[in-house]
Specification:
The chain has about 300 residues and is of the alpha/beta class. It has a domain of about 150 residues: Spore Coat Polysaccharide Biosynthesis Protein SpsA, Chain A (Alpha-Beta Complex). It is built from 8 helices and 8 strands; from the N terminus they run H-H-E-E-E-H-H-E-H-E-H-E-H-E-E-H. The strands form 2 sheets. A 6-stranded mixed β-sheet has the order 5-4-3-6-8-7, sandwiched between helices. Belongs to the glycosyltransferase 31 family. It is a single-pass type II membrane protein. InterPro entries: DUF4094 (IPR025298), Glyco_trans_31 (IPR002659).
Length: about 300
């Protein structure tokens, strides 16, 4: 038989055991609500992503997972980029050495700028030299056009006008040009009186105005050019915006007045015996930026100094 004190202790222990059970029950209830809420949120995200996939693909209802949905979207974006690159690669192969393939404009494609414009500086009375170059490497008619369209290389003979404007020399060049259509005639240059450097300067200026090319090359009419080798070499220098390339040398400065190549400003050059480093005149190449600079400053008296 229990005493009154024993009954009171048992009642107290029973009440204490019910309190932790109540806390556990409340915790379990809140945990269930939290988990259910997260599951509902994940389900809503899943539904949203699947709907987005359906909207993008236009394939109606889908039962794939969220992970698969994201993978498909990423995969299709990569396919779009790959298709665009394949189109550009195919176009570049067709264009030969054309520098940057194609530009997309309003859903159509047009050619980019030519790789190089080659100016062959020639003179009156050198028709045989020009014909030899046409047969050897330059081509004429359809062959010349093929080089322009296929390789992005434009070639022209460069000549000025006769001191007696409109005489038989001018007429011969005009007649030849009507047959071949491969001249760049410098109407503002008089052959024989203004010198070779002036003619080269005017070629670069006029060529930069006429064609927006990557490079411009000056060549003499007794030089034979390997078009493929030149195109391949220049294609590796497209990342150089201020290129001046050729057979570089430092020629001798002649201070004697009776010398054929007398330099009136011989005293300006360092040791007074050699010019600054420059390309040999038979052939050299400059980039578009330099050609544009020459074009802009063609009439300047001090910016562009000519050395013979």
């Amino acid at each position: 038989m229990q005493s009154k004190g024993s009954s009171h202790r048992l009642s107290t222990m029973a009440n204490r055991s019910r309190i932790p059970a109540l806390f556990i029950s409340m915790f379990a209830t809140f945990a269930s609500i939290y988990v259910a809420g997260r599951l509902w949120q994940d389900a809503q995200n899943r539904v949203y992503l699947i709907k987005e996939l359906d909207r993008i693909t236009g394939q109606g209802q889908s039962a794939i997972s969220v992970d698969d949905t994201l993978k498909i979207i990423a995969c299709r974006e990569q396919h779009k980029k790959l298709d665009a690159l394949e189109m550009e690669l195919a176009a570049a192969k067709q264009e030969g050495f054309v520098s940057k393939g194609l530009i997309e404009t309003n859903g159509t494609y047009s050619k980019r700028r030519p790789l190089v414009v080659i100016g062959i500086l020639t003179k009156f009375g050198r028709r045989k030299n020009r014909d030899a170059i046409r047969k050897a490497w330059m081509g004429s008619g359809a062959a010349l056009k093929k080089i322009e369209d296929g390789k992005g290389i434009i070639v022209r003979f460069v000549i000025g006008r006769s001191p007696n404007r409109g005489d038989s020399q001018d007429k011969d060049i005009d007649r030849e040009n009507r047959l071949t259509n491969d001249f760049l005639i410098l109407d503002d240059h008089v052959e024989g009186s203004q010198g070779h450097p002036e003619k080269a300067k005017l070629f670069f200026a006029h060529a930069a105005d006429e064609w927006d090319a990557e490079f411009y090359a000056k060549v003499n009419d007794d030089v034979y050019v390997n078009i493929d080798a030149l195109g391949a070499t220049l294609a590796t220098h497209l990342d150089k915006p201020r290129l001046y390339m050729g057979c570089m040398k430092s020629g001798e400065v002649f201070s004697e007045q009776n010398h054929k190549w007398y330099e009136p400003e011989w005293w300006k050059f360092g040791d007074k015996k050699s010019y600054f480093r420059h390309a040999s005149g038979e052939m050299y190449v400059i980039s578009r930026a330099l050609a544009k600079f020459i074009s802009i400053n063609r009439s300047g008296l001090f910016l562009l100094h000519k050395y013979f």
